[in-house]
Structures are given as structure tokens and as C-alpha cells.
């Protein structure tokens, strides 16, 4: 077995073993939660309106119960496969740019997921009370989560901490997740067919889904409180990185100075965080995340519109209708391809 296969085997066995490691009290707590098979073959539990993977259910509940936010904290929140890795790299590099010499940017030696750690997939995974004072090498503290807005700990919602959220059109997100799940799936199980995955996605069943509830939860919260939540789109970033990076810096309270702009700092950040650069770094070719997932799995194509190579006309029609229905009246728009004619706006 090569390193990737060993990591995968470890990750799959972690997901499968986790339920047998639950104590009686926890088993009792979750016994009545609705349950479904995840796309990669483990279990999803329906908890507080969302499908939580068995691997992180306990960690998520610990995080929800015990995490105390500081006013200065920054949290990268995402639905899986919407640009988490990218936004982690961008937020890290923007927020801390004056805390290290540029040619020693930690992104060159650590994966974005190692630098901006998940609450549920990392910090709380094996420890209900992680020492959060010492996990961040830089200040302010920077964390990440796939948790839906409605389920965030009260201290995150009520404190002055800031949330940066990125969403992505559901067609690209769906294909990205389907291909990712196939890589994680246990060798002894057949991969989920595109039809099967589509059926699950259409009915809101995927890790941290329903997708639309997740996106709209953060979208509405960002509309109500734009100083607290910055809502970004994968497709907008692809189209015009520099102006979104300036907005991000402004939102984080570290706007680029005129000098920095003249020195090309914005372009440097966008370049170091680009798909092409990150994918080729040794650390991202070889490293493994705490869950056992190889870093390479987080870098596939990074494009807008790749769904057109996979979805059937029937699937496209269903998703277009679903998008219209779900976004109705919300003011949220998805760009489905880099060609502007192919966009779905909310009525
Ligand atoms: P996660 O939520 O599981 O952490 P996430 O990083 O959101 O994963 O998703 C990975 C997707 O982002 C992949 O998309 P694809 O399958 O359509 O290719 C990956 O290629 C893409 N991605 C990763 N890094 C970047 C980047 N720097 N720029 C653009 N896209 C990226």
C-alpha cells in the first residue's frame, strides 16, 4: 500500500470505528437521531436540522457546548467543497501577513488545513476540552468549521468575533463532493453512483447538509449583520480575486495600505493561495490531515463549470429548478459557469 492508501484505510476505519468507541451515555443520546448512509459509506446523524458525520458528531457537540469565543476570533465557515482550503489560505495570509517574512509564509511548509484548524474535524476530535490558547501560533485566533450557522455555539453568535463564509454553486460543489467521497470510500464497498449521490443531494442528505439550508443560514445572517459575517462566492473570487481580497482585508480590520498595494502585496497573496501554486507545493502533495485524508484530495481542478462534464440533462434540469425554488426571494445568486449567461439568480 502507498501512503495515500494507508491514510485512506486509516480514515475509513476511523469513521467506522468511531461509533463503537462511543460511551453508553452518548449512544443513548444519539439513539433516536435519524440516520442515513454518507456518500463515503459511514453514517450521518440528523442533529439540530443537519446531517452530521458520525466521525465528528461527538466532537461537534463538545465544540457546541464548550467553545468560548473571543471578540477578536476569526472563523472560516464553509459547506464542504465550496472553497474551504482556498479561503483558509487567503484568510491566513491576509490576517497574519505582517507577522512573518513573506518568503517564510507558513503556507509554503504547512497545508491550509494544518494552519487553520477545524473545530470538529481536528481540535475537538479526540478532546472535549482542547487547549485553544496555544494552538494558534499567531494572533488573533483563527479557526474553521463546517457547522451550519443555526448550530454555532452562542458565544460565536453573541461575541464580536468575525465569520468569513464562502459558498459555491451547487453543481460544482456536488461533483467535487461526489468525486471526493469516492476517494474516501472503503475498498470493500462500491462507490456511490452519480445517480445515487444525486438522489441523496437532491433530498438534502450529505455531510453538514442540507446544502441550501447551510448556505441560506449564513446568507441571511450576513445580510442582517454584515460587519460580523462576510459572505463570499467561489465564482466571484475566481473572476476578480484582488477586489475580494481587499474586501476581506477590510472586513478583518487589516486593510491593505497604499504602500502595500504599491508593493503588490494583494497580488502576492492571491498568487501564493492560487490553486496552481498550492497544488504543487511538496506539503500538499505528501501531507496528511488529522482525519487521515491526504492533502492531495483537497486539490483537484479548482474550476467553475466542471459539472458540465458529469451531470446529465435531467440532473441539470432538476438542479436548476431546485436552485430557483430554494433561493426564491432570498436575493442570493449562483454563477454556474464562467460565462455570465449561464447564471441563476433568485427572482
Ligand atoms: P473541504 O470543504 O472538504 O475542506 P474544499 O477545499 O472546500 O474542501 O474543496 C475542495 C475544492 O476546492 C476542490 O474543487 P474541485 O473538486 O472542483 O476541483 C479543489 O480543487 C478546490 N480548491 C482547492 N484549493 C483551491 C484554490 N486555491 N483555488 C481554487 N480552488 C481550490
UniProtKB/TrEMBL annotation:
Q: Which GO terms describe its molecular function?
A: sulfotransferase activity
Q: Where is the Sulfotransferase domain?
A: 72-331
Q: Does the keyword Transferase apply?
A: yes
This enzyme's EC code(s): 2.8.2.-
Keyword hit for Manganese: no
Q: Which Gene Ontology BP annotations are present? A: sulfation
The record's annotation in Pfam families points to: Sulfotransfer_1
Q: Which InterPro entries match?
A: P-loop_NTPase (IPR027417), Sulfotransferase_dom (IPR000863)
What UniProt keywords are attached to this protein's entry?
Transferase
Q: Name one GO cellular component term.
A: cytoplasm
What protein family is recorded? Belongs to the sulfotransferase 1 family.
PANTHER family registered for this protein in UniProt: SULFOTRANSFERASE SULT
Protein's name according to its UniProt entry: Sulfotransferase
